[in-house]
Amino acid sequence: MIIATGITKSYRQRGNLLGGRDVRALRGVDFAIGKGGAVTFIGESGCGKTTLGRIAAGLETYDSGEIVIDGVRMSSLRHRQRQAHFRRIQLIHQDPYSALNPTRTIQQTLDAPLALRARQTGRSKAWADNRAAELLTLVGIDPGYVLPRYPHQLSGGMRQRVVIARALTVDPEVLVADESVSMIDVSLRLGILALLKDLRERLGVSVLFITHDIATARYLGDDGELYVIYRGQVVERGATETVISAPVHPYTQSLLSAIPVLRGVERPGPERVEPTEALDESHADTGCLFARRCPFRTERCESELPLLGRDGDTTQEHACFHPRRRSVIPVEVTA
Amino acid sequence: MTESSSAPGVRVRDLTVVYKTPAGELPALAGVSLTLAPGTITGLVGESGSGKSTLAFSLLNAVQPPGRRSAGSVEIDGIGDVSQLAGDDLRRVRGRQVGYVFQAAQNSLNPLKTIGKQLLDLGRSHEVADLPALVRDARALLGRMGLDGGRVLDSYQHELSGGMRQRVGIMLALVLNAHLVVLDEPTTALDMITQATILRIVQEVHRERGLTTLIVTHDMGVAAEVTDSIAVMYGGRVVEHGPTTAVLGSPRHPYTQGLIRAIPRLSGDIAEARALPGRPPTLGTMPAQGCVFRERCPERREICDSVDPAPVAVGDRRVACHAVEPAPASARVRKECA
Lengths: 335, 338
Prior knowledge:
Chain A is of the alpha/beta class. Helices cover about 30% and strands about 25% of the residues of chain A.
């Protein structure tokens, strides 16, 4: 169980003669993942979702806030102890082509973390060898074929499975999957998603899924939670199905409206919101962060910042002064 | 009507492109025929290794060694057979008549020169007499796509976002007034909202300037959004080609069916989405005879092992599959069978 509260992170951007400025990547984000849960972060590039994933995996520092893993406050620990806790949260890299060392066979790649694991748990070398084959079988590839080979001899889909197997060597409780399928061929993509779903169900591993392709979030499980992030703020949060079928924040609605319609099978949603493109708006910080792109903004939005919360008739939380359910996703055409 | 001001048609006939490998010459394209009707947007959809990029490069006769065209022709209205051109003739065709938009994510722009300088290079290499007019056209085009043209021309590529770079690519492909445009993965690595914007721009510019457009993509959704027709490629062959709504609504080739079923969607039962079993063939694993898709095909039958199905007309489209019943014998089909 991971609970994060009020995570903030700023980057210093190098500027011109007048000096740099701070870019606020995360503005006080809360999230929680339970055992075997599925949490998805969506948003445009630059919204902070990747930073959040890296912070969750312990690969990035944060400026303020607290992460609690199984009741232990990370800020109370020393570096080494903290590392041991964060080892239970493993990041699966976006690009399977660069995530594996090209000079090592898959056997060597898996051996190093397994040897560490064997030492930690007082097991033998034979256990480690067995475990490598076991893990590869678990992720759906033939160990006999894969183990002696180098990464360049494998297809993209296989490499991604090897990356997942490597993450599993340390028996993690959470997998952080950052755009893990965006570089995989379409016909194989669903296979990787099905594998993550399967790991959730069989091993009880939680999945933190970071993507801009909202449809794939549905596939991970209908009990999942969806977080919509805009400029470092969570603007809508709720059950995946609810947020997709009845979004209330105009930004969520723009994102969902931008998804291509499969003409011939679907027609555009009845209340589709024409998406407006990102502006360079890292400067203006008064009022709602989305106000300048929002078709429904009012005066209040320009002066006051709405905070994430729930009101009477919505099941999901949102950060909007004028929430309204709109049906924006494509509708299936029934012949 | 002059040649350069109307949308050209394109006819690729029996095109075979082979790559030299240690295992001999292997076909990346095996006798592909594809017609682009003038003024339409065609989507060329396929996975990596399907030959879609090789086919797109063939429109510019730009297949690089170790690749080699071994048979077939690429006829473009107003140019003739591109595959017979070479040297300066070929260079003039590229850019002037056929515009190519490279992937934004890849480094298709020179990082050391401003966009404006690269534009002038383009103008000089094509002997444009009136360079100020070229700059004006470029600025107008960028303005049309919602950018501040002056600012963009003074920028280096690293100062532009992915969506802006993609628009610069479109500008460079169109500024010499090409009427045949090839877009290679125009939205890969862009996020959803930028993708939607770029696709809208592609459609609008296509209409306003009267273009023939080919969009190469691995994403069926992208093709679904903007194209008039979709050609699905697999293992160096076009396995299905027809009107977009028909191909998506009632796909005939088992591969197309599988591909559409593999797209996770926002509505409907998500459990209906299914991955295709197996993996796409590479040059080395392509079967030497028979249907290239049979290993993954649910409709496989005996004939598939020995005979490579030829594309035949089925209603409003062409399909290459033994399991698909051809249309009631029309004159066209009979001619092909003969």
